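job 3f2a | input accepted
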Amino acid sequence: MVDAPLSSRQGLGFGMLRLDPERAEHREALRDALVAGVDLFDLGDFEARAGVSSSAGFSEKARLIGALVAEYAAVPVKVLVRGSLGSAERFGGRFQDLVPGATARDPRIEWHYLVADPEFALRDLEWDHARLYTLLHRELDTLEELAARGVLAGYGVASAAFTYAKESPDALAIAPLFQGRSDDPSLELPDAPPARRPANRRRFRWIEFPFNLVESGAAWENAQSVGTETTTCLRAARAFGLTTVARRPFDAITADGLRRLAAYPDHHRVDLDEAVRRSLEVAIAEESETLVRANHERSRSGAASETLAPLWAHRLRDQLKHVTDPEQWREILRRRIDPDLRELAASPTPPTVRYFDAMAALTLSVKLWCEKAAAERGERLRAKLVEAAPTLARHRRPEDRDPGLLALRIYRSIPGLDYVLVGMRSPNYVRSITAARSAENAARVPALGPEELTSVWTAAHDFFAKGTA
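job 3f2a | predicted structure (469 res):
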């Protein structure tokens, strides 16, 4: 349990998309975050939408956080809810069903709404940005009305497009969101941030975007305009009085795929290259003995190709060189391999027990191999970052081997970055994150200066761009 509340120098938030209210460890993780003084929680989408994990259980999560806030919260809490462009009116109509008894006037908990990824609508709008901003104005007007009625305390927009280069066809500007009526087609940019907020934007408070060691455009890319000045997303947000939230701080999208900044077991005493080679050899032999022969016989009898048994060991022989990340492997297992193996086990003529044992050994050895590769990659990255910014070597603690915690130390030096939003995984994970932040605040760990920040970003980008990741 964390002893002291966190400092408010930079806020820490937790995402609850995958939180299961029925699991005791998830409830414990949420409780520990509240006790530690975390004051921002993201419940995710209030309804399922294409390309996003299902929001089943939203009401259960809302009830859980309401109950735990009442009992454990060290400070008032802000809860973010997401919805796609055009969903705000539905949310307002369903609010009391989704969150029974909630009100924006509750001093312990505030409800805020984010319009999520509005740039996704551009394809359907044939890249007509004027139409997109018109739809956004209408959505923000609806949210302002919901806030005026006491349903919401505030609202905002979550979009990676805030950080895109201005010439990008997907880029999204902050300035137009503060101007005009929803039916105003002119969309002329304001000359400067308004001296006072327009009446229909008084409760527009948030912008959210991806930010990590690779995707750092919000701090460095001059993608926004404030009057006649071109500036960064973070500076523009400050000029317009908006609170900024960084999402995916540990999940970098690189040319080699997803790279998660986390501490993994290094398994340094185990020859996992040999373990993967041997387990793959055994699994292929078992698969050839049963499934390959069965598929051949079914093909001769005229069976459709989609009804043939999946040959995962044979597939992995050629594809494993493209799998190097534990999260990537976990998703391949969850979405593809495990469902196929369950279907095989339930079939009228399942493979032998030896086959399933061989596949279990193969998937485990690949998991361990990916963890070892990620641990070695994390250690190389940590060394590069400390070399680039010697301040990071001060106040070093054993847990600083975790590249994610080291990244948090870097993010807290970014001017204008108000909150960092991390995924809520387990009680131990929550405790490690909150304890690290509390320890830094108590020790008054110095922030990185501009030169060190520039060196850190250069080192991180070079690390991921040169294939060393």
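job 3f2a | The longest strand covers residues 77-84.
job 3f2a | closed
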